[in-house]
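Let's practice the habit of predicting before peeking. Look at the sequence and jot down your guess about where helices and strands might fall. Then scroll down.
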Amino acid sequence: MTQTDGEAKLKRAVGLPQVALFGLGSMLGAGIYGLVGEAAKELGSAIWMAFLVSMVAALLTGLSYASIASRYPRAGGAAYVTQRAYGRPMLSYVVGLAVVCSGLTSIATQSNVVARNFASVVGIDTPQSVLAIGFLVLLAGVLFRGISESLWLNALCTVIEAFGLILVIAVGISYWGETNLLEFPTGEGGEPLGGSVMLLVAQGAVLTFFSFIGFEDMLNVSEEVREPERTMPIAILAAMLAATAIYIAVAVTAVSVVPWRELAEAPGPLILVVERAAPWFPTGIYAGITIFAVANTALVNYVMASRLLYGMSRQGLLPEAFGRVHKTRHTPYVAIGVLLVIVVALSLVGNIGALAASTVLLLLTVFTVVNVALLVLQRRKGEAKGRFEIPSLVPILGAALCATLIVVRIAEGDWAAPIIAGSLLLGIVLLYFATGAGREGRIDAFLESEGAN
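Done guessing? Here is the structure:
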């Protein structure tokens, strides 16, 4: 489906501060509040190394996404770039829906966390399922209202969750220098548990890598950003650098205030840090901050998934209905509504933790494909250049590192996630053939309108 002048379109209403905060909110997310404890189990007091290594690994792919955003500021993100580079509708379909699956599991999981935490903080006994559905309907309403409203809500949540992390740093910075930041978990013989230090850091980097992947979410809103060719690369890099500074400072602070062994066992590691460093601070407020952090994660993924479905519809990979835009609100209302039905159903299923964990492998696969796609497009004659071009070595290294992280993740010995990820990919392929997706006529018409034929 190609858009004509008479059809409603997405509106370029987003500036640099909003899209940068959108990316930062996606990267900070809810994970850091529990991730510090998980990382401490793997790396002891050296958890800052995991964040540093994973940031370097993610930065390579982030640079690729920044370059892609300056070349092709389109809704559809990874699916659009994959189709343009390889010309394989099925591959584009699989890549797009793999990203959507990641978003859906995140939204459903976070809706239940919001409901549970809200009931605990407010002190009500309303069924969790009712609160979760109410939260999802509220998010859908904000998304339907407009991209500006969605990103202003995101900005508010991002500022609040960033305040929670900066608070940890502020109350604990006086403890810096009081602990060995290179103490790894060891066995009876003094050898690092689980193998060499390098392997431990690699495993920790896999754990923390997904703290930096907001660039996929950012790419999917680039069609609604003003001057995206200039704005998107700046926003992506600014968000990644800000997230890195906050993460490393929080990691150093946490192990400086609380011994890493205790931190690893704490149900709420950052709340424990605040309790130790600032016993005067009411921890109930901190519990409230986590609600905004979790809600923001769901909001960002909802925005991303709706724009991705919209973009895939325009490419001819999904039914035309997903590409419909409301005439006055300029939002993809059909995509928003369909996603609401799906995430409400998922939220009622219960524990989908294994499904969520499997999407880690799916996203690493997507990043590998996208890095190689950029390399293909860089070397293709006639492709327009963007305002942010990078050396070919960057996507090569980005693809290699993402592939390495897949191997490291599988080598951990937990086969549940790889099996579920493989099953999801197989299911998406079967869905592609069952629905007759990727009609050549629609795809060719779209590519011709994009000048990609």
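How did you do? The mean pLDDT is 86.
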